[in-house]
Write a structure and sequence with these properties.
Chains A, B: One of its GO terms (molecular function) is metal ion binding. Chains A, B: One of its GO terms (cellular component) is periplasmic space. 2 copies of one chain form a homodimer. Chain A has 2 domains: 147 residues, Cytochrome c-like domain (Cytochrome Bc1 Complex, Chain D, domain 2), CATH 1.10.760; 146 residues, Cytochrome Bc1 Complex, Chain D, domain 2 (Orthogonal Bundle), CATH 1.10.760.10. Chain A has a two-stranded antiparallel ribbon. With 358 residues, chain A is mainly alpha-helical. The termini of chain A are far apart. The first copy, chain A, is globular, with a radius of gyration of 22 Å. The first copy, chain A, has 14 helices and 2 strands. In chain A, helix 4 runs antiparallel to helix 8 and helix 13 crosses helix 14. At the A-B interface, loops of A face loops of B.
Chain lengths: 358, 358
């Protein structure tokens, strides 16, 4: 869905329409700016990483397996909790040795529709993304060689990799681990939100307040960065373009995409986040210090929109955002493969054990 | 299943039979000493805590909800992972602020059949047990009042508690949280292991080696502490009664049940663990430092049985223990209720965030 359609003209048209009435061709405008979540995201990755049942099953086991981390206590699901909107609902994740991640954990749901991964877009796709947290010292703190030794020591994993990657000379690899994780995560999409039903033509799917919020969202600038299938996630934009938020929301030390591109014009530029399921993914912003969705809308109004939204608009847009909560994926917890006597042991800093009872 | 039948005579008979042939009335002896896992454990708790669908559903949400912990990052499932045999497969659990629990996390599967909970049996049942980790400083580090404030701030939880406890004046309570957790955990049982099929009369369910292992298990003393429906978990026994294991396996500082009863004769006495699913729950013993099942059998042979088991017996008993792996519960990951703006924030020690990218 990477810039699947030119929407600049539609945005200009939309912004130009000013204070149009809520029912004045609104569905048609919305259909030009957004797309419903499709039934499947397979076509987005199938050319380079075909989706097969074997890969999905392997990817699901890997996603839930804490043995991907050096301590064998942290799984992908720890910070991308499938029961909590696909993220962890804390300001920044707690990783190896209780270290803190630098930025708020983004939801994994619908991530396949984003133009790139991480807040600064430094990973082109979910295969590349998966390799980050596994190795990051403040997250899983693992190494590709220790991970491969772990997986190779577990018969059921060896068989699962060979089934999922029948053409690989070296099926049990770090690269294939990431590829299987991408395939599984591409299944974690949330169709059928009220807004999707609306986009498909059901004009009763949104409440009156949500309709007013959508109108403001399209007419007063939000849509410039939050459009497409993911209502965001499609491009890079400077944060604080009008007014710089406080340091708790936009800490000076995090220069965003400039840290990736080493280009001055990318200072404090971030990939706009998707707003899909946004009510489930507090706290907000890359810094994760704003807990209220309405407050987050107000912050954006000040930082990006020169307070074009009235107080009522802020309420209405907040209501509209709640229409972006889709059907959450049904996940059956996988039975994880049994270790063997040659499986590497967990690497947990040797803190003394508690002296209480257990 | 608390001492449901007198088995002392059966044990004496069994021990007395010496080197009986493997097919010499073995099924009848086994049926006197053990019981298959039943289809349901409802009758064990229903008098004081009736099982209802509403309580199971609530208990499942609570079991997976990291907001039971002060940091909002640790759930029951963190240390009692339903995909890994109901425990965490590390020596002792990693809790709040990366502190270590004092003893190896026991599996939650079939725990309802144990005579009491924790390695020292200090909790009479799973309701009492649930209150421990939630409050323990090295585990979830929460308080009843903060937990109740959290649950009360979440509409869906308030409704779920009111449905589950319709007769409670104060439905959203710490006590009811523990009661719902007990009910959910009482559903986490693993019937239909090969050994259960054998106990039900299928004499082909075990391999020849497993049959030889069962014979040694019954004839050479293991059964004295590991009997009943859970093949253990029914009584208290001194560890190292013949030979004291090394300090890595039996650290001097952990005096076991004596720390609960303050009685000299309970020094280094522990509740015998259930051996159900034991191949899934390495590492072994309360200290969690033995990773190989065969090594664990050898340790017990030396510590408890005066090396009555031959090397071949040790191999065979190990094989028999693998016949205790039952059908793992199928768990659909629950959608956790949405926080509100009044939900207490996570209490995470204010460590600096990693300076890397995220």
């Amino acid at each position: 869905m990477k810039s699947a359609r030119p929407i600049t003209a539609a945005i200009a048209l939309s912004l130009g329409s000013g204070v149009a009435l809520a029912d004045d061709g609104m569905l048609e405008r919305a259909q030009m700016l957004f797309e419903p979540i499709p039934e499947s995201a397979a076509d987005l990755i199938s050319e380079r990483n075909p989706i097969t049942p074997e890969k999905v099953e392997l990817g699901e086991m890997l996603f839930f397996d804490p043995r991907l981390s050096a301590s064998q206590t942290i799984s992908c699901n720890t910070c991308h909790n499938v029961g909590m909107g696909g993220d962890d609902n804390i300001p920044s994740s707690v990783g190896h040795d209780w270290q803190r991640g630098p930025r708020n954990s983004p939801t994994i749901f619908n991530a396949v529709f984003n133009v790139a991964q991480f807040w600064d877009g430094r990973a082109e796709d979910l295969t590349e993304q998966a390799k980050g947290p596994i190795q990051a010292g403040v997250e899983m703190n693992n190494t590709p060689s220790n991970l491969e030794a772990t997986l190779n020591s577990i018969d059921e994993y060896v068989q699962a990799f060979e089934s999922a990657f029948p053409d690989s000379d070296n099926a049990v690899s770090f690269d294939n681990t990431a590829a299987a994780l991408e395939v599984y995560q591409a299944t974690l999409i949330t169709p059928d939100a009220p807004f999707d039903q609306y986009l498909k033509g059901d004009e009763t799917a949104l409440t009156d307040q949500q309709m007013a919020g959508l109108d403001a969202f399209m007419n007063k600038g939000c849509v410039a960065c939050h459009n497409g299938v993911n209502v965001g996630g499609q491009g890079y934009y400077p944060f604080g373009v009008v007014n710089r938020p406080g340091a708790d929301i936009m800490p000076e030390s995090d220069r965003g995409r400039a840290q990736v591109t080493e280009t001055a014009q990318d200072e404090y530029v971030f990939r706009s986040p998707s707003l899909r399921n946004v009510e489930l993914t507090a706290p907000y912003f890359h810094s994760g210090n704003v807990w209220s969705l309405k407050e987050a809308v107000a912050v954006m109004n000040d930082a990006q929109l020169n307070s074009l939204l009235t107080d009522e608009d802020v309420e209405n847009v907040t209501a509209f955002l709640r229409s972006l909560t889709g059907k959450q994926p049904e996940v059956v917890y996988p039975e994880l493969p049994l270790r063997s006597d040659s499986t590497p042991l967990p690497d947990i800093p040797d803190y003394p054990r508690g002296s209480g009872e257990g």
